[in-house]
Write a structure and sequence with these properties.
455 residues; globular
Length: 455
């Protein structure tokens, strides 16, 4: 997550100038995520994590309640954080208990019909620097210095030792092999699990800037020369065990400031571009500035890559630490509208019960303005989507699509809690098998309209 260090960059200020991007400028040319039946998918959900526990207690902070409550609010997607340092505490020794704990969370997800992306997470590289992620035995610093920044942990990414550790991860042959084996182990264990949709190959990757190199130029070089070959290596490792899952690839977090990625082509047919959606000023505690043009700049930046390489977009993390500031209601409305223009889905940060980034308070109620993320949406559309939009003021969701000429005939709507009236035109039939979900069956090739109205 971007912190105050980025706000000091003059480049950032230049990139945040007001802009006037419109929906039609960004939507066309970006493929949609699909399932095994060819249906168009929309993923809406939250990150689920336990950074506090490790070893024998790893993942104990995630309970069945997390998945049950997530689904009860209408969300069908979770990005599950896992840590290499817990999976492989010493070289070549994989923790069977950790794999079982991951599987337990996946079993809960399957029980509540939640699809999961397994995220190989790192913060400031890993435990060698007081965080989680890449094991200490895979951390090489060449003796360069590291100073902790307890009040601004993201600034630690710019410490020489941390940057050098990323360089070794990307360049050292034995570490490359170790990272690939780690992913092969995960994919081999979970390839056939019904909850698993895909794998996020590394969270918020960073790297080493060269002397005198400005941050945006460094980010694009690292993405082009180090992340692209890394993702291709890891894709090969996953495919040796799982042929079907989607592979989620991230740029550096610098994209959050409107900097287009330098990533190249990932040679796999099931790649998802998975940037994060954070603003440096808001991360440092500032309120949303509706006139800054930040969302428009971000939207232009993150849509360039998927248009060029013809891959879908799923935003892997987003949401400010303080959602109760005066302009945050406007932020959530603007953000939801923007995400709906180009993304196949998103995962908010983070599904937990408390303060800060948590979606919910201790009672399980949404924290200020975060209830605006709980909208009706078409989770799976058996056809070609023509339009889909929710008006939060009137409580009306409208979907129009051309039903597929073959394959699945069933479109799935996900609904937040409450009473909803569902109607369909074009000869389609609505079935309501359970609370929070509606099914629409349509004749092949028909022009279908679906409306969900809050009563």
């Amino acid at each position: 997550m971007l912190r105050a260090i980025l706000t000091a960059s003059a480049v950032v200020a230049a990139l945040l100038c007001p802009a006037t991007a419109r929906a039609e400028d960004t939507g066309p040319g970006i493929p949609r995520l699909t399932d095994g039946h060819g249906r168009v998918l929309s993923l809406r959900g939250w990150n689920i994590e336990d950074k506090a526990h490790r070893g024998d207690e790893a993942l104990s902070g995630i309970t069945e309640r997390h998945l049950r409550d997530l689904r009860a609010q209408g969300f069908g997607f979770a990005r599950l954080l896992v840590f290499w340092d817990d999976l492989e505490p010493s070289p070549g020794r994989y923790s069977r208990s950790y794999l079982r704990r991951i599987e337990r969370v996946l079993d809960w997800a399957a029980r509540y019909d939640v699809k999961v992306v397994i995220d190989a997470h790192q913060d400031v590289f890993g435990p060698a620097f007081g965080h989680r992620g890449i094991p200490e035995w895979a951390t090489r610093t060449d003796g360069l210095p590291f100073t902790a920044h307890p009040d601004d942990w993201f600034a630690e990414y710019f410490e020489p030792a941390v940057q050098r550790a990323f360089t070794h991860l990307y360049e050292d042959a034995d570490l490359r092999r170790a990272q690939a084996r780690m992913w092969r182990t995960l994919a081999d264990r979970f390839a056939r699990h019904p909850a698993v949709l895909g794998y996020d190959l590394v969270n918020e990757p960073m790297g080493e800037a060269r002397p005198g190199e400005e941050l945006p130029a460094a980010a694009r070089r690292i993405e082009r020369d180090q992340l692209t070959p890394m993702y291709n290596r890891l894709a090969d490792a996953v495919r040796s065990a799982d042929r079907d899952a989607w592979l989620f690839v991230e740029p550096t977090p610098i994209v959050g400031e409107g900097v287009p990625t330098g990533l190249g082509r990932i040679d796999d047919p099931r790649v998802v571009y998975a940037p994060h959606f954070y603003n440096a000023a808001m991360e440092a505690g500032a309120d949303y500035d509706p006139g800054s043009g930040w969302i428009d700049a971000y939207e232009r930046a993150v849509t360039a890559y998927p248009k060029r390489y013809r891959v879908p977009v799923v935003v892997g993390e987003w949401g400010p630490p303080d959602s109760g500031l005066p302009h945050m209601n406007r932020f959530y409305r603007d953000a939801m509208a923007s995400l709906g223009r180009y993304a196949s889905g998103w995962a908010g940060y983070v599904w937990c019960y408390g303060g800060g980034y948590c979606a919910l308070d201790g009672t399980g109620a949404f924290r200020a303005n975060k209830e605006l993320t709980a909208e009706p949406y078409a989770r799976a559309v058996a056809g070609t989507v023509r339009s889909a939009a929710y008006d939060s003021d009137t409580g009306v969701y409208r979907l129009a699509y051309r039903a597929a000429s073959r394959g699945s005939r069933v479109t799935v709507l996900s609904l937040p809690p409450g009473s909803w009236r569902i109607t369909a035109g074009g000869g389609a039939r609505v079935v309501r098998p359970a609370a929070g979900r509606a099914l629409v069956s349509a004749a092949p090739g028909s022009a279908v309209t679906v409306t969900a109205e809050r009563r």
